[in-house]
Amino acid sequence: MSDYSDEEMDDASDYTEEETYEDDDDAISFDTGPIQQKPNNAGSTFEFKSLSTDDLRTLVDSEIRDVSNIIGLDLEITSILLRHFRWDVDKLMDRFMESSDVALRLVGEPDSINNNRKQRDTPVFVCGICCDEPPPEEIYSLRCNHRFCKSCWQMYIEEKLKTEAQCTIPCMHEGCRTVITDSSMSFLLDPTFVSRYNELLINSFVSARSNLKFCPYPSCAEAISSSVGSSSKHIFTSFVPTVSCRNKHSFCFGCNLDSDHRPVLCYWVLMWQKNTREDAGTAQWIKANTRECPKCSNSIEKSGGCNRMLCRHCQYQFCWMCRQSWDVHGYSDALCSIWKEPDRDESMTMATKNLEKWLFYFDRFNNHELSAKLDQALCEATEEKMVEVQEASDLSWIESKFMQHAVDALTQCRLTLKWSYTMAFYLAQGNQKQIFEDLQANLEKAVEDLSQLLEEPIEADTVKDLRKRMMDKTVYVQKRHEVLLNDTADQLAEGKWEWVTPLDA
Q1: Each residue of 89-136: pLDDT tens digit?
Q2: In Å, how far from its chain's centre is CA 296?
Q3: What are the entry keywords (predicted)?
């Protein structure tokens, strides 16, 4: 049941900053790369491996072949069926077993490949798209027998691939839903567009599977296969599913954030990002520093010294102090003097506290985020310093790499510290939060001490002492980083953290 032309059928490691939980002794080896493991609350592991484009293509071909053997159809038609049912094998099998004819009609398969055979008996063929009369060898038809010239087929398919990013492309004939097969793609297109078609096919497979995700880093074609699907959100309340592709890009498998957001859970990361987008600090400021118009309840901010307020919405005038109508109040200080300024109500007091809390944590989060953005400049400066180190001493290039190791440690620790303030924001007050903040403060102090060492001048007579101090401090920073992450992960796995609101709220 493959497409054909008028003439012929188509033939056509130890602890590192990148991975705290990795355990080389327990790692399981696979043909496509090592599986890395994360602890969870069930005492088992969160396993994942990095897959290349070739690995994904092998998975796709294997699934098509397995289903084809069961339902007894060509590989190409099976591929079309799987795409229609979003690669859900169970759903496809159920529908196909109910009625194979209905399942095939759903994907546009013609009832018979000969239903349009009479079109081939016409003495002169005119392409319905370009209205040219191509020679017989330039005429091509699908299983539905709708014929067009090869040039029109090619332009049609290429446009679909370029502008609509479709891998399931129907026949050009109006109202016909017969899908163009892989062999037709190979026959009609040049290798560049065939490659694009295969890329879109793989994308459709990955997007349909909750246990597969592409690496979010630009130009990286690796994907991650995990033992747990990302749709199982409740599982990710006991650990942070940080993964790394073969190219050493770390990201979160749960929320797909393109960085390692440990120690905070995906749930709170999404909440934090939502609050940031909605500018929660501004909202709290408005609630804490404005008053409602007594008539229309719109919020009004006092921008001058005069207590006479005019609501721009309803034009109502009132006194800022006592909120009486200005028609009654006027400029009478005596009238207002018999009233105290109304006490701030509970909602305004709470809003002020929420504002102060938000600004405190957001300022520190933003500070580390800003520092992280300067890491590239720091790395460049470090390269220059390493040259200075070599020139000022007899150290080898390898021995002078201590500064680069320090920068790498700083980069990872600042990323962790940034997200640690998000976690602290959502932690409930108590001993657990106090212990967490002590660990956070210890790491932050160590990071700042190491950062200061990088600023010290390079002198020939002191460079070896600087190297020793910086190496010692780098190891200390890494250990404090490890303690914070491990302590957080252990308590997450045991469900000991207390939050300001329940995770399922």
Answers
A1: 999 999 999 999 999 999 999 875 444 444 444 568 899 889 988 898
A2: 43
A3: Metal-binding, Repeat, Transferase, Ubl conjugation pathway, Zinc, Zinc-finger
